[in-house]
Design a protein that fits this description.
By secondary structure, the chain is an all-alpha fold. It contains 10 helices and no strands. The protein has helices spanning 13-37, 40-47, 51-57, 61-81, 89-106, 108-119, 126-149, 158-174, 176-182, 189-205. The protein starts with 12 loop residues before the first helix and ends with a helix.
Length: 207
C-alpha cells in the first residue's frame, strides 16, 4: 500500500484551471513586454488574480517563464520531428512550410515569446536548445542532405534551408505590427504567405 503521506496529491480542477489561467495571462504579458519588461503585477492583473495567488502556484516570474518555454518547445519542434524519411521529400518539406505558416496564425504570442528569449541570448532556454533542438536539427539536416544526394531535392545547404523556413514563416507573427501597416489591413495575409512560400520553396527544391 502506497505511503499516503508521501504520495503526490493530484491537483484539483480549480488548481488546474488557475494554473492555465496564469499561464495564459503570462503568455500575453511576456509576448508584449518581453521577460525583462514583464512583472508579476502585470501577470496578476491580466489573470484577474492576486499576486499572492500567483505565487501559490509558481515560484516567481522566472518559474512561469520557464514553464511556458518548456511547453512551447514541445509544440515548436513537433512539425520538424514529423518530417518522414519514407515520404516524398519535396512534399514533406512543403508540408513543413505550410505547418509553420499555420502555427503563425494559431500561436503568434508563442512565436514572439520564443523570439524574445532568443534575442536575449536564450538565458533560460539554452539547455533545451542543446538537448532538444540540436539533436533533432542535426538529424533532419542529415535526412535532407540524403534526399539531395539521392537527387530527390535540388542541392542546397540543409541548415540554411531550415533557417530560412523559420525566418520566412515566423516573420508574420514576430513582425505582425509591421506586416499589418504595410499590408494596409488586408485580409488573408497568412494564406497569401503560405501560397507564396510554397511556390518559392517548390521552385528552389525541385531537382
Amino acid at each position: 500500500m502506497p505511503d499516503v503521506a508521501t504520495a503526490k496529491k493530484k491537483p484539483s480542477r480549480i488548481q488546474l484551471r488557475n494554473r492555465k489561467r496564469i499561464l495564459d495571462a503570462a503568455l500575453e504579458v511576456f509576448s508584449q513586454h518581453g521577460y525583462r519588461g514583464a512583472t508579476l503585477d502585470q501577470i496578476a492583473e491580466q489573470a484577474g488574480l492576486s499576486k499572492p495567488n500567483i505565487l501559490y502556484y509558481f515560484g516567481g516570474k522566472e518559474d512561469i517563464h520557464v514553464t511556458l518555454l518548456n511547453k512551447l518547445m514541445d509544440s515548436w519542434l513537433d512539425p520538424l520531428d514529423h518530417l518522414d524519411p519514407d515520404g516524398s521529400p519535396l512534399e514533406e518539406i512543403l508540408a513543413y512550410v505550410r505547418r509553420k505558416v499555420e502555427m503563425t496564425r494559431e500561436f503568434p504570442r508563442e512565436s514572439r515569446l520564443f523570439a524574445n528569449e532568443i534575442l536575449q541570448g536564450a538565458p533560460r532556454m539554452g539547455p533545451h536548445l542543446e538537448s532538444g533542438l540540436k539533436p533533432l536539427f542535426d538529424e533532419k539536416c542529415a535526412l535532407i542532405r540524403n534526399w539531395m544526394d539521392d537527387g530527390r531535392l535540388a542541392q542546397s545547404d540543409p541548415r540554411h534551408l531550415i533557417f530560412s523556413i523559420w525566418a520566412t514563416t515566423q516573420h508574420y507573427a514576430d513582425f505582425d505590427a509591421q506586416v499589418g501597416v504595410l499590408m494596409a489591413g488586408e485580409t488573408g495575409v497568412v494564406d497569401g504567405a503560405a501560397d507564396f512560400l510554397e511556390k518559392m520553396y517548390r521552385k528552389l527544391l525541385t531537382p
